[in-house]
């Protein structure tokens, strides 16, 4: 028997040597000397993570506003006892000494607040999803530029330890150009059962949740324009909630592909895996959940290494978004999570939603509304 096919189907034993971990700066970076006064507008559930992490980094939050004053008072008393509280956000915008505002309400309520804040010469961190209409987003970017202020989006996944490491490893050229990126997530989101805020979102997975993955895919690909998006969403009869629990998406680029697979109804055996194969190496992160990714694996021609990661998404992420905005202001540059950059992420997401609804391939940028 010929041995010409010997080894067929078997991977060559490459990268078997253990190497030292390359230096990759992935933790949030604080500004050196810029310590502005910050105002928070909106005290919904997510504001807890904002304020908790701002306090950890020593950021100077001096004002908190919510239409329900008792909510502002509760957040103030827990995190920033010296801050002033208001039931009218315009009181924050009138304070000249406040240079940065964090605006957290839902998109419909948030857009007019962002406009007023930008015209009041305030730098803005907007909650995600940034907008529901790309044209509205472009208008906000234009207003920010006209008023000489920065507008960033709270896409905090970019500073999750595993995503942050991968993003900066790509930027450093460690694995070369990304060829394929695979996201595979199985998690339990059955806690939304009976909660209309989530049950009424038809694309709860592809929109409310996966916006982080469309954004980090955009970041991994360096903002490269995608050629097409195909997505699907499936509901099955045993589900405990209304929105489709199963979703997937394929994003095609000129010479690369991003693939996403989601199951938001995994009550047993949750897992979250990300794999990036580049022209010079592979990065892999695996853990029981998005907030628990303790080790990064790196494979190159020189060998392989397992790299322990510091922190977690709900700490690093919320620290990173505000810290990067402040660093960008200090260094007079655009923040990496600028609204203009985030519009490219929304192009991917909006195309995926339309694709799932119509079972058609969509071109990013041609679908302008969620």
Automatic annotation (TrEMBL):
Residues 168-284 form the GFO/IDH/MocA-like oxidoreductase domain. Belongs to the Gfo/Idh/MocA family. InterPro entries: Gfo/Idh/MocA-like_OxRdtase_N, Gfo/Idh/MocA_oxidoreduct, GFO_IDH_MocA-like_dom, NAD(P)-bd_dom_sf. It holds the Pfam family GFO_IDH_MocA. The keyword Oxidoreductase applies. This is Gfo/Idh/MocA family oxidoreductase. It comes from the Bacteria. Signal peptide: none annotated. GO terms for molecular function: nucleotide binding; oxidoreductase activity. It comes from Flavivirga eckloniae. Keywords: Oxidoreductase. The keyword Nucleotide-binding does not apply. Residues 37-154 form the Gfo/Idh/MocA-like oxidoreductase N-terminal domain.
